[in-house]
Each structure stands twice: as C-alpha cells, then as structure tokens.
UniProtKB/TrEMBL annotation:
Transmembrane segments: none annotated. It comes from Microvirga alba. It catalyses: uridine(1498) in 16S rRNA + S-adenosyl-L-methionine = N(3)-methyluridine(1498) in 16S rRNA + S-adenosyl-L-homocysteine + H(+). It holds the Pfam family Methyltrans_RNA. This is Ribosomal RNA small subunit methyltransferase E.
Amino acid sequence: LFIDAPLSAGARIALDRGQANYLLNVLRLGTGDAVLIFNGRDGEWKAEIAVEGRKAADLVCVERSREQTAPPDLIYAFAPLKHARLDYMVQKAVEMGAGVLQPVLTRRTQSTRVNLERMRGNAIEAAEQCGILTLPEVRDEENLDKFIKGLEADRLVVFCDEDAPVSNPVEALSSLGNKSLRLAVIVGPEGGFTDQERAIVAAHQTCVRISLGPRILRADTAAVAALAVVQSMLGD
Ligand code: SAM
C-alpha cells in the first residue's frame, strides 16, 4: 500500500478514507493484521492495523521488510494516448521499470491535454500491485524537439520506429555492451512520427533506431515490447 508519509519504526499513520475502506471493508482486515507499505523513499515496511472504527484506521510501522531500491535510469517517452490506452501504457511502463514517464507532443499526437494526476494514480496502483518500491517521476508534457535537445548527449535513446529495417533489437542493444546506461525509450503517436520528427530523434548523439518486428504495433503494445527489449539488455 502506498503511503504518502515518512516511514520509520513506531511511526503512526492515519489512513485516508479510501485506504481505510479498502483494508477494513474490502480486504476485511482488522486490528493487529499486517500490511506491507511503501512511500517511494524509505523501503518497504511491515505495518499493523490499529482500528478506530469501520471508516477510519491508523497503521503503525513495525519493521522494514525490504530496503529501498534504485530504479534503472530509464526515461519512457511517449506520445500521450487517449483514456484507457494511456492508463494501460502507464501501468505497463511502471511494471517494466521506467523511472521517468515523459509525455511528448508530436505533430500527430491526438491527445494533447494530459491528465498528470491520473497518470500518477495509475503509476501508484501499478507499483502497489507489483511490489515496486520506487514511484516513477511523472513529468509535464513537452514538445518532442525540446525533449530530445534537453537530453544528456550520452543518454542512449532507443528510438522505436516501425520504418526501421527489421533486425533483432535485443542484439542491437546488447552489442553496445554497457549495462549501466542512462536510457530513454521513445514511442510515437497513433499516427506515427513524421519524417521531420524521425530526423530530430535520430540527430541525438547517442541514438539506436530499433524495429519491434515486421508488423505495425499499436502504440501501447509497442511500449511493452520496447521495454521488454530494454529489460533483457539490462538484465534486471
Ligand atoms: N495506429 C496504431 C495505434 O493507434 O496505436 C499504430 C501506431 S504506431 C505508428 C505508434 C508507434 O509505435 C510508432 O510511432 C513507433 O514508435 C511504435 N511502433 C509500432 N510498431 C513498431 C515496430 N514494428 N517497430 C518499432 N516501433 C514500432
């Protein structure tokens, strides 16, 4: 369970209504039952429920059950999609270890007003469900050109392009032979990148253009495929 408060032995945390309802009425837990909690900074803690009523409850931190882990230095940059497809993309990117979620606006981006709060909520939910202790940073949307120009020159941009020659993307990345990379994976909008945008991304000093196979994937599917390729290179 994500808790937006410092965690330490003996700390007492008042749950908000939604969390209290979830633990007491959905999971049917009660006084003394154990819950695993995290805040994105202090690792994972075993906490016990101290019930005050059916609608309110406190947790008391007992002991740390896992140390805080550092996520891979991995920016997932994507043209925002609409509603459920964006929810799905955010969930999957978090599950697959993205440390930063960066919406980028491109010429064919259909959804230019991004609900960052909804993205954060989805990120928390994915982290809670998958035991991920570090929440990704959710950044404000940025134009593609500005995003690429703002990257460190040595950050490896993994540019997913359905027009790239089909070849094994894991081999292409593994041949770079460096597991301590700073990475940025970029996936385009429903309508794909324009040629001018392809040139902007490819102009980044450290960029590998990869194919995810001979078929055009939907953008949310491409997210999962691209991040799986990157994970198999990083090995974590
Ligand atoms: N119209 C579909 C949709 O609504 O999602 C397909 C969109 S596809 C053009 C969106 C992005 O997914 C592309 O810009 C590219 O980044 C990535 N992509 C899709 N298929 C790919 C492939 N075979 N290889 C590499 N990237 C791919």
